[in-house]
Please model this.
Amino acid sequence: MSEIILTPKEQPQVPLEAKNITPDAFAGKTIDEIKELKIWHGNIQVALSEFFDVDGESAENASEMKIIIDGDVYNTKRIGQKMTAGEITVKGNVNMYVGVEMKGGKLTVEGNAASWAGQDMEGGELVIMGNAEDYVGAAYRGDWRGMSGGKITVYGNVGSEIAEYMNGGKMIIKGNVAIMPGVHMNNGVLIIEGNVVARVGGEMAGGTIVVKGVINEFLAGFKYIGVEKEIEVDGETIPGAFYKFKGDHATKGANGTVYAAVAGNGHIVP
Model:
């Protein structure tokens, strides 16, 4: 696999918007052509090379290419937007919209990510080794269609309203979550290995949420079904005992499922 290495020169106060940092945009281009690809700095377009050194070897096809961003890009947005193939690895933090509308390939962030990571994701795999802020895998503002495919894994903690309007795919959060994970969820699987502050699955209509940690506050719109052990979710057997709920019956015809670990969650059972 061919590698292109982007080394950040600096991160300006005004954020960069770099939706051209994808294997799709780089494929079939020479290094000089890649250097001239445009990114946004505020309201003006500049060459990629103004903020990144570019080295390595390109490939004809996106599937044969890996982009390595060798440094922190905490003020660069939209890395990996709409990528369909290949790989991107960021050796640091990223700003908002990393992996937005992603359709294929693999994108790994070794640091933290700001809000809207994986928004409207359709396929591929997004891995965030640190923390992520709000709206991971969520819908665009005003839309009712969020993540529909692919897989998102966050190894740290996340903010509020993750998996909003989720309609497919799989999301795994290994840390803790703020409020309203899976709000308006329609389909797909959300697994939370840490604790949740409140409102798991608010107004969800379908899909499955598993919480292995403690839910501080639980909504009244869920019907308690009973205790299940060794639950099977998306072809995976999850060990342990879980309270099972169906809902959220605040939404007409809702058929979502929430599993909450028995350990530590006795206060949410009616």
Helices lie at 23-26, 31-35. The longest helix spans residues 31-35.
